[in-house]
Amino acid sequence: MATKLNTLPKYVASSTLTAPEWAHTTVLAGDLATAVTELKQQPGRELQVHGSGRLARSLHDLGLVDEYRLWVFPVVLGRGQRLFGDGAAPTGLTLVDSQTTSAGVSVQILHPTGPPKLGEIAIEGGTKGRAAG
User: Fold this and answer.
1) Do the Cβ atoms of 35 and 28 come closer than 8 Å?
2) Residue 100's pLDDT is what?
3) CA angle 56, 62, 66 (to 5 degrees)
4) How far apart are the C-alpha atoms of 109 and 128, rounded to whole Å?
5) Distance separating alpha carbons of residues 13 and 47, to the nearest angstrom
6) C-alpha span between 82 and 59 (Å, rounded)
7) Using an 8 Å Cβ cutoff, are 59 and 49 in contact?
8) Helix and strand tally (H, E) in the chain?
9) Neighbours of 36 (CB within 10 A)
10) Long-range interactions of 105-108: CB distance < 8 A, separation 24+
11) What does 17-48 look like in DSSP terms, one character per residue?
């Protein structure tokens, strides 16, 4: 995996880094929304976020995430950071695919559908409820 990552282009959103040492790395300085929008318009491979919940939350709030690939591990740590903390932009998600590994890890692929619709909702296989408003 490391060999593959070393050969691919990488982008780092930073207001302090100016001379990255990792090969094929470009620093995205300035407005994050503009920089990522321009990258998404270029042909090539998909853009991924690895290891930065803060960046993932910023991209989420800017509406720049096309797909979430969430890995849910069967363990309760009892502490840690939430991916979508207080103040995150409300967003509906559609489950596109899900699998469970032999170790019990649930891998879910979700696509954002925009702000959730407030009002009556139906819960599949359950009872009706009301979305918070």
Assistant:
1) yes
2) 97
3) 65
4) 25
5) 13
6) 15
7) yes
8) 3, 7
9) 20
10) 105/71, 105/72, 105/73, 105/74, 106/71, 106/72, 106/74, 107/69, 107/70, 107/71, 107/72, 108/68, 108/69, 108/70, 108/71, 108/72
11) --S--STTEEEE-S-HHHHHHHHHHSSSSPP-
b/e 49-85 (16+ beta carbons within 10 angstroms → b): beeeeebbbbbbeeebbeebeeeeeeeeeeeeeeeee
Task: Please check whether residue 104 is in contact with residue 94, taking contact to mean a CB–CB distance below 8 angstroms.
Answer: no
Domain ranges of the chain: 1-47, 66-133
65-100 pLDDT tens trace: 999 999 999 999 999 888 888 888 889 999 999 999
- Under 8 Å between Cβ of 51 and 87: no
Residue 124 — very low, low, confident or very high, per pLDDT cuts 50/70/90? low
Q: Could you tell me which of 84, 40, 43 has the C-alpha nearest to residue 60?
A: 84
